[in-house]
Amino acid sequence: MTSSVKTSLALAATVAMAATLAACNPDPQTASIAAGPKTPAQKVMTSFTPALRCMDDLMLAYGKRDIVMTTAGIPDSTGKVQTGTKEMLISAVSKMSIKSKAIAFVDYDTERQDLMLLFQDIAQAGAGGNRRLPNYYIRGAITNLDDNALDSQQSVGLAFPFADLGISRDQVVSLVSVDMNIGESMTRTIVPGANASNTMAIVRAGKSGEAGGKIGKAGIQLSMSLNQSEGVGSGVRALVELGLIEVIGKLTNVPYWKCLEIDKTNPTMQSQARDWYDGMSEPDRVKFVQKKMAAIRAYSGAVSGQMDRNTVDAISRYKAENGLIANGRIDFDLYYALLDAEGQISSDTAAPVISKAPTQPLRVTMSSDRGPQPIYRPGEVLKAVVETNQDGFLYCYYKDAGNSVARVFPNRFQPDPFIKGGRPMAVPGEGVPFKIKFDQPGAREQVVCVASERDVAIPDALKGTDLMPLKVGSTAEVIQAFRQSNPTAADAKLDIVVQ
Q1: pLDDT tier, 317 (very low <50, low <70, confident <90, very high otherwise)
Q2: Over the stretch 298-315, which tens digit does the pLDDT of each residue have?
Q3: pLDDT reported for residue 37
Q4: 97 — alpha (psi -120 to 50), left (phi > 0) or beta?
Q5: CA terminus-to-terminus distance, the chain
Q6: What is the pLDDT of residue 239?
């Protein structure tokens, strides 16, 4: 083969390769370089605009209004994502409140890190004015970004004496997670259960090709690539909207899963509704049933919260018509059926969902079989009880003779910190297979119990296995750690002398 023929073949191969690559996207101005997320997050579709509008209709139907909120945004704990999450939240709240007017978003200057102090300043400066103080604030973080969680590459190449050809294709999948919570503004207490944690897969795919040839002794190289990337910013927006739907739904006790197209038979959703049902008082359950049945024209009596004959008859009829046991009683099956039923509750008769301040502050007391300042001898066992004046969450810690502090309740035998008000409980728990036994005469030991109206996250300094020494120097540090996350926490001490 002559030199001119080789050169012609090289040029032909090179031009053909370039044409093939250019055909993938002939016009750079219309090149597809980005796309919205096609991989759905957990429990969701790719776009949440319809779901946000659905939440607007849902809160209108349940009579939710005048929930005042604010936020400082969702910071990026990974340091890898730069997005305006505060504006994303504001846009989502706006779409969720067009008709219902359920949420009023107050845009304060949130550069101050301590929002509670900011709110206190606003309350003092705005007394008698038109300023609105938020009931709640949204907090959270972009908690995880796993780059290259899945990396797939494919390539093929051909080599000739006069030319080299190559084509490659790669796909990279990254995972991004967003956690979100709602807190009460003035107390900085995180609302239990009003949280969301979701993850989305972000896909980046690309194609590239190369062609090389020789003209005489001079080499030429042409390359072209086509990249398609689902932007991390779009993924974060989807996760922010999903998280907002979830936390607002949990805060207001509306069946938000309907807007996410989750079937009501889903066990997770049933468990969520069961928590709402168990948390309602008996009169509140009766009122909810009366209101909801009135909304669907299955009840025409008064909303009294009392189980009168009219209410019992209406419940029996509704149950019979919907395949439930027609016993005239309020149970979870009735509640769940009505929760999912269509029908608008007027705003002045909305189901009780937003927590209210207790009529009296939480108190916790401790006592022993030896009185409030007990004296024990070596070999004897502590016999003490703790009691709260209302339902709450309890944590008890024991300081021994060597000043080591360990958590004794909740423990591996009684892991639930919830305690019923007005019911004395033995320390460190009923029926646990261990006791606090004194063995060092002259020691000064102590038991401290901290109670909260709502469960809070365990402070970092107090995280650890039960019955094992913690990295704190005193029980005072235990109380201080709890008070930082929950200023309204109550505590009680039992000072023990061993003689």
Answers
A1: very high
A2: 998 888 888 999 999 999
A3: 47
A4: alpha
A5: 109
A6: 85
Q: What does each C-alpha distance from 498 to 263, 393, 447, 449 come to in angstroms?
A: 60, 30, 13, 20
| Interatomic CA distance for residues 226 and 31, integer angstroms | 8
Which amino acid, one-letter code, is at 364? V
33 touches 321 (CB < 8 A) = no
Q: What CATH architecture applies to the domain 6-252?
A: 3-Layer(aba) Sandwich (3.40)
Angstrom distance (rounded) from CA 393 to CA 482: 12
Which residues are bridge partners to 181 per DSSP?
A: 139, 195
State residue 19 phi and psi, 5-degree precision: -65, -40
Q: Which whole-number Å values give the CA distances from 268 to 191, 199, 257, 271, 278, in the listed order?
A: 19, 17, 10, 5, 15
Say what the pTM is. Answer: 0.52
Q: What distance in Å separates the CA atoms of residue 198 and residue 177, rounded to the nearest whole number?
A: 6
pLDDT given for residue 488 in this prediction? 81
- Matching CATH number, 263-349, of 3.30.1480, 2.60.40, 3.30.420, 1.10.101: 1.10.101
What single DSSP character describes residue 292?
A: H
Cβ–Cβ < 8 Å for 212, 220 = yes
Which residue type, as a one-letter code, is found at position 162? F
Tell me the one-letter amino acid at 221.
Q
Select from 117, 111, 60, 118 the least CA-distant residue to 86: 111
Position of tokens 């030429």? 220
Averaged pLDDT for residues 188-210: 74
pLDDT band at 234 (very low <50, low <70, confident <90, very high): confident
Most trustworthy range by pLDDT among 14-28, 185-199, 250-264, 450-464: 250-264
